[in-house]
Batch of 2 targets.
Target 1
Amino acid sequence: MNQALDQSHGRYEEIFSAVEAPFAFVDLAAMWSNAEEMLGRAGAKPVRVASKSLRCRALLDRILKYDERFAGLMTYTLPETLWLAEHGFEDLLLAYPTTDATALGDLAMRSIANPADAPIVMVDCAEHLDMIQSVLGTTAAPVRVCIDIDASWWALGGRVKVGPKRSPIHTMDQAVALAKEIERRPQIELAALMSYEGQIAGVGDRPPGRRLRGAAIGFMQRRSAAELAKRRAAIVTAIREFADLPIVNGGGTGSLELTGAEDAVTEVTAGSGFYAPSLFDYYSRFSLAPAAGFALPIVRKPTRGVATALGGGYLASGGGDAARLPVPWLPPGLKLDSEEGAGEVQTPLLGPPAAELTVGDRVYFRHAKAGELCERFDALHLVEGDEIVDVVPTYRGEGQTFL
């Protein structure tokens, strides 16, 4: 393993010899390998690409052109969705509800101009419908919406909720009631149903050095997947008795083969798997190649055994545990200092290679969650073979910071 990492380190050092750190990069060969792996696990289902995990228009465009099975985008804010639509992206499904009245007004105008291809917005309560309707005026073009179904698993007889705290719509009766409320409103059209099983798709079942916890996670995921498949199928069947439901979306990178096998699901979603950040190292069902990272310069040597990098405090959102920290990657054998971690302006590094590093050297890191890397860097250096083939702007590089 270390020999392979040593070779990767040497390769990147040669490729980036003329690039000043800090910088971020994507290795296209690894990304396309991950793309093929995800398509294989999705089976016959098309894969909607999660824009929040990539946050780079150039890469979104490349992925959608790579294979026709990558179809459409799942977006994360309405302003981002409309911005992507202005740049020619189609088949857009907004994954989170919005309270942005200005953006909803812009969406209403786009629905008038092209109702069949206007973005679909997420709802999970009547208040969302009221907000949408309040900005529509007298337009005859309906705004298309998607119902977000709670995908969490209620364990221990319903006493413990396991999964993301998203939608209040959990049961078939609740879903049918909201769908019928949508049907009563002529300016709103039900176009899709979505459920994100984060407790399966976003939680690895092979935590390092914790076999018992991994077994418990695996048990939870199997039980949760079985319960959700049955409940999701019942909801879809019930709604289709009185309404069209062309899109039933589910899953994520970590659950493609499970969600994709459900007959009720028409498409799955993936995004993080293209970059394969460090949180995706801990799954037993699949293996991805690290495809994205960032480089920092060594600017200090406080002692012989410590090398201090400039910046590096690119912590991922979430529960705040150690798994959210960036991971020193190359040269292999480096580790974060337990007292300082990854810092806003400096990151001390320990381990045998630290003694050999000198001021001016570079170290390479992997980030924990996919798209958040692009909130720190304005460009991605795209690597193919042994050269940089392009430098493309991230959302930040285009002056866009949606969240």
Target 2
Amino acid sequence: MLIVWGIRNINRTLAEGSFYCPHCQTPRTYQHKRARRFFTLYFVPLVPLDVVGEFVECQACRQTYQMAVLNFRPASAESQQLSPPRADLENGMPIHMVGQKLMLQGKSEAEAKLEIDNITKGWRRICPQCRFEYFRTVQHCTNCSTELPPAEL
């Protein structure tokens, strides 16, 4: 007789809500999920083992993020139009998002890049996890909450 056993992870939804998705770059609904490892017999989960972790999943793009992404609060639409790029960069907005914002305000891609380069002077912090670039004063990635290494030129 063949006995088929194994281990697999099962995700359980703990909560739902609204957050600012870094991938979609707009408010979206999310599910807060917990991954738990189970012992399986004939592919049926029987015995719960350890908790593997918790994460947030965007319901639009299905990207997953660490729980810290729920703490990010983008500026309102009114303040985004009034906020200068330097303030956005200093407040933790990724460099590519500042560039997109400048282009939405009517600047060409080259003009947006030049304005950002004039502010950053080429010094940027790059997240080792998701590769987002930030202004040199930002300490943690707003996408994955990883601590950023020293600024690079």
